[in-house]
């Protein structure tokens, strides 16, 4: 399968700082994922929190996406690692899907590598801000 170019990424300045700290802290435990997150952050457009468009996936956003390969839709809420509960649909930003979705706009389509090493084509269908963008803790 041909890889789709990565769509633009938009992050708020306060989220960027915390994500960079999380990625750097996980370099020893999960270097591939940390490197992927740092790569995404390095190419991100950074905005003040009050300028973040509502249709961009941020911490607290409910993101519905379709796995084009499997024809399956799923909704997750992007959260900080300490708030993650995949059974409740809360995906940590420090998981492969969290890294893939953070900062993407509704309509974005991209190639994603699963934890099992499979390559999938995903499309972001909707982004709904479940909570206001919270400042870094």
From TrEMBL:
Q: Where is the Regulator of nucleoside diphosphate kinase N-terminal domain?
A: 7-46
Keyword Glycosyltransferase on entry: no
Pinpoint the Transcription elongation factor GreA/GreB C-terminal domain residues. Answer: 53-128
Q: Which InterPro entries match?
A: GreA/GreB_C_sf (IPR036953), Rnk_N (IPR029462), Tscrpt_elong_fac_GreA/B_C (IPR001437), Tscrpt_elong_fac_GreA/B_fam (IPR023459)
Q: Which UniProt keywords apply?
A: Kinase, Plasmid, Transferase
Q: Give this protein's Gene Ontology molecular function annotations.
A: kinase activity
Q: SUPFAM superfamilies under this entry?
A: FKBP-like
Question: What name has this protein been given in UniProt?
Answer: Nucleoside diphosphate kinase regulator
Q: Which gene encodes it?
A: rnk
């Amino acid at each position: 399968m041909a890889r789709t170019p990565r769509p633009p990424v938009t992050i708020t300045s306060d989220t960027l700082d915390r994500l960079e700290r999380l990625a750097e802290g996980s370099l020893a435990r999960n270097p591939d994922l940390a490197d992927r997150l740092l790569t995404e952050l390095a190419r991100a457009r950074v905005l003040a929190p009050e300028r973040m468009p509502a249709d961009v996936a941020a911490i607290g956003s409910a993101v519905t996406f379709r796995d084009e390969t499997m024809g399956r839709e799923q909704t997750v809420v992007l959260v900080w690692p300490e708030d993650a509960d995949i059974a409740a649909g809360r995906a940590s930003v420090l998981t492969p899907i969290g890294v893939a979705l953070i900062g993407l706009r509704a309509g974005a389509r991209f190639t994603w590598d699963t934890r099992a090493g499979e390559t999938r084509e995903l499309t972001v269908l909707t982004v709904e801000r479940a909570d206001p963008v919270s400042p870094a803790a």
